[in-house]
Amino acid sequence: MRKTRIGFIGSGNMAKAIMKGLVSSKMKTSVELTAYDTDSLALASVKKLFKAKPAASNQALVKECDVIFLAIKPQVYADILSPLKPDFTAGKLIISIMAGLSVKKIQAVTGKVPVVRVMPNMPALVGEGACGYCASKEASKKQMLLAETILDTFNRIKILLPEKQLDTVTAISGSGPAYFFYFAEAVMEASKELGFDIKDAKKLIAQTMIGAGQVMLESEDTPEVLRQKVTSKGGTTQKAIETMEKSGMKNIIKDAIKAAKNRSEELGK
């Protein structure tokens, strides 16, 4: 049986995360990877790490591949994709991980090719991604199944959504890892000020975040109820939460999420 040929236009960190997921999964025996990048060192890297065959050009890649990942910066998409329009022939599927670029904008330069638009996040680098995705009406059931199988190789959570909700996904999970890193930053700074070893603090806060996240996934309780279960009346946790509430932390977080969502909408215009 012929292997599914998956090509990557661009070979940055997220493209590498996807390639890693593919070659580490059950799909590894049924796919062939191809990549093109203007950076020859990046191409050499994905060839060595994931056995991705370097393509001679973007045009050559599109011609020979069944699935084409768009892993390029949104600012250059039109310049790169416009010359490739004749090569996006019947049966091909585009999977875009370009932030803020709608299916409509992509198809304006590629023609009515089936497009699956994905908003991945940084934990995909370790196979722990969470993503939202949508698809154009041209995508067949077979193509959707293939796309979803690929997404499963680097995500723990994937949610099919109307495209208009991907800006909110960007604000929640796309930018989300930075929120947790920012919180961890503050915890580690406080730990240092308290004379605690910074390396030990990093391990403790990282595992605490992982564990708390797993509890959230497995529990039917809301985050509010889970927080209350940890918070004893008159105890240390209550004091910490009261301090956060006095600073208006919840409203600050809500404002930040809304600002990220608005910015995502602006970038897509």
Describe the structure.
- This protein folds into two domains: 4-161, NAD(P)-binding Rossmann-like Domain (Rossmann fold), CATH 3.40.50.720; 174-267, Orthogonal Bundle (ProC C-terminal domain-like fold).
- The model has no long low-confidence stretch (mean pLDDT 96).
- Helix 8 (176-193) crosses helix 9 (198-218).
- The protein has an eight-stranded mixed beta sheet, with helices on both faces.
- The chain has twelve helices and eight strands.
- By secondary structure, it is an alpha/beta fold.
Helix-strand layout with pairing:
Layout: E1 4-9, H1 13-23, E2 31-36, H2 40-50, E3 53-54, H3 58-64, E4 67-70, H4 77-81, E5 93-96, H5 103-110, E6 115-119, E7 129-135, H6 141-152, E8 155-160, H7 166-174, H8 176-193, H9 198-218, H10 223-230, H11 236-246, H12 249-267
Parallel strand pairs: 1-2, 1-4, 2-3, 4-5, 5-6, 7-8
Antiparallel strand pairs: 6-7
